[in-house]
Structure formats: C-alpha cells, structure tokens
Amino acid sequence: MLEKLMELAPRRWYSDMAGYLSRVHLPSPADRWEVAAFQKLVGIDMDEAELPLEAYPTINALFTRKLKEGARPVDDREEVGVSPVDGRLLSFGHVHDQTLVQAKGIDYTIEDLLLDRLEAKTFSGGSYVTLYLSPRDYHRVHFPVSGVVRAYRHIRGDKFPVSPWSVRSVQGLYCRNERIVTYIRSPRFGEVAVVMVAAMGVAHMTLSYLPYDVRKMKEHQNVHIYRAKGDELGIFHLGSTVILLTEKQADFIDIEEGTKKLMGQALFSIRQ
Questions:
Q1: What is the torsion angle, in degrees rounded to the nearest 10, for the CA atoms of residue 89, residue 74, residue 224 and residue 132?
Q2: Tens digits of per-residue pLDDT, 11-23?
Q3: For residue 72, what pLDDT is reported?
Q4: 199: left (phi over 0), alpha (psi -120 to 50) or beta
Q5: 240 catalytic, yes or no?
Q6: Of the ranges 28-32, 83-87, 104-108, 118-122, which one carries the lowest mean pLDDT score?
Q7: Which residue among the candidates 15, 139, 142, 158 is catalytic per the annotation?
Q8: 83, 86, 91, 169: the active-site residue
Q9: 220 carries an active-site annotation
C-alpha cells in the first residue's frame, strides 16, 4: 500500500523543486532566516562546520558544507578501509549468489544495482555496506581506500525516498533510484565500488574528482585518477544513501546495524 502511494507521488517534480529552492538567494535578511530555520529544523551541528552559520547564503550551501580541518580524522592504517560518509548502518554482510539485503525480507542483486553484468561478477564474492545519510549529516562522500578511479557510471533513475521506513517498503529501491557508481582499483583491497544513491528531495549529485557534471556526459566513462583514502569523492546536493562494495570478502570492524559511523572511522579490513 505504501509503495503504491509513493508511486503516485510527484517525486521528480518535488526533487527538482527542492533543489531549486535550496539554491535560491533570497533578499537579506530573509536568506539568513531561511538558512537558520533549516539548520534548526534538521539539527545541523554548526560546531563542526568550516564556516559560521551566517556565511552560508543558501540551504544548499549549508547542506553541502565542509567541516573544520581535523573534524574527521581518517584511520591511516594501511590494512583498514574507512567509512566514506557520516551515516547510519542500514545493512552489511557478505554477498551470496550476487544478492544483497535491502531490508528484512527484501533483497536485490548487484547486477540490478550496477546495471553491468561484468562488474557485478567482479563483486559477486565480496561484501557490502549500506549507509543512510539523514538531513542533519555531513553530505560529502570520501574515498574509503586509496587507489585509482578506473571508471564511473551515472545511472538515470527514479527518486523514491530512501529513509529507513521506505527501504523496508519499496522493493528494489536502490536499483530504481538514480545513482552514480565510482569504481576504484586498490593494490591492497582489490576492486571497490562506491554507489551514491539519490532520493526524493535530492536535486543532484556531483563527483569531486571530475571537473564536469556527469549528468551531461556519457553514462559510463573510463578514467584513470589516483586518490588517497579520505580524499573527497562526491557531494549530495540534499541527502541520500551510499552503498560500498568490495571484490574480496571483508572483515567488518566494530559495526552494528542501526549505529552511526563517521567518515574516516575504520569500517573493514580485507582477508589476505
């Protein structure tokens, strides 16, 4: 029933309108009031923000804020992969028959997520972690491991909500929504994929390691760009979900479903 109601909702119109309104510069002091009201409504911690609240001219500027230097120390142990975002752990585990768990009783396949049979085969024996970013969270995505970005893919799709209640209700949600996949080749960890999943209310996503808007380029593009663990990978312009895939089976480090992880905290190591 809930899924049918969401099917009828004007999801893309709402997302486009939310994105437009979040970027609108209102005349002062209305702009300061709007940004302050949003900060208070969602509970953003300004003690961590790079700039004071009055320095952000729009909701989007506040939402995509950087943090103060040192606010997110990155675990520098070579054998450890880190959380790419501040987010709540919705699900994690090892891949069985190319199947991942969305929620209790709802599964989906790697091939449906990546829309690429060969790439799906690469990750069919590995592990996955799903992290949900609430509106109050820091919304920049970072590299979980050091390595070479060998390709990215922008997959056009829908914009269903990705909050925990919708994840438990909409079949194949992550495979239906718009997403951007970054493929990383790491000497230590093998192949790693970071999947940024859009949601209703997410205007768009950008990749920080590219100088152009991926929505205007080919849906799949090979690249060769080295980035270190902790470097910025991308930005959600309003919030969503990240799914991390590893080629090799991972040993998870101090994680439990429903708990919060901060960007840079240890998340997994790889069995050698």
A1: 20
A2: 453 344 344 444 5
A3: 97
A4: beta
A5: yes
A6: 28-32
A7: 142
A8: 86
A9: no
